[in-house]
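Input sequence (335 aa), recorded before submission:
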Amino acid sequence: MNYSHFIGLDISKTKIDVALFDKEKITIELIFKNNPKELKKALIKLFKSENLETNNTIICAEYTGMYIYSIIQVCQELGIKLWLENPAQIKLCTGVHRGKSDKIDARRIALYSYRYQDKASFYVQKTENIQELEFIIAERELLIVDKQKYSTQLKDQKGHVNDSFYKNKANRLNKILKTLNALIKEIETKIDEIIKSDLKLAHQYKLITSVSGAGKQVAINTIVATQGFTKFDNPRKFACHAGVAPFNYSSGSSIKSKWKVSHRANKKLKKLFHMAALSAIQVPGELRDYYLRKIESGKNKMTVINAIRAKIIHRIFAVIRNNTPYEKNYINSLV
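Predicted structure, token format:
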């Protein structure tokens, strides 16, 4: 479909810079307040004053975390097509930049949406359970970081400072650690409740954890990252997103590099699948046998572990696709 109008948004905490492009030039530049009530009024006014139609207008913005909440909510209510793009993708496709401001960025985003409209991927509202899981998982990670910070400090200072000073500090920090542990446990209980209350998510969780190495955190974070396997349906694409798929870099005859994963990968998922792979090779089974066999043949240790990460991801997508728990001794009936 060919669209007639393209609205670029540069979103910050309190305001949104707006640029309207109509296939020929930027015609309107405005600033909206970044809250649902004011934003809704402003968009309705803009669409009315410029005779814009929701079926042939695209709103494009960079994905900027929690600051995009208002625009998502308003676009869903008004039935406007919203395209949330990776900031790096926009930057790489808009040429050499000279100067930067929110106003200029809004223009660039509007032009980007016009030039690459055939690649537009419109936002699909996440289910409420997925949204809540995503929110409280982030909270859990914040608490775990604090817990590790205080625990590490107590461990490092023990025996290296005055005993009286250390004892007083330990008493104070242990109170904080006790509170953090209680809050983490409370969040984990809430996560379990959300999963159990949703038949689809509970079934997906059960299927994923049937795969060797895929524990609770891998299952929950995979469900959230794939939005219940609606955002990703291809294990290779997800492996790339999770920093498991390697790429090579070469140019001519002088610039060559080893195959390696992209630094733009989701670092959290990469770490989780790394831990899953390490867990899988610790217990007797085919993945451990595969690891030992490859190491004995002279393969690099990290290369083999990365291959096991990929195997775990492919098995997760396979059990979801086949709607059947993983079977270690599965025999293909077509053979």
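Checked by second reader. The longest strand covers residues 26-33.
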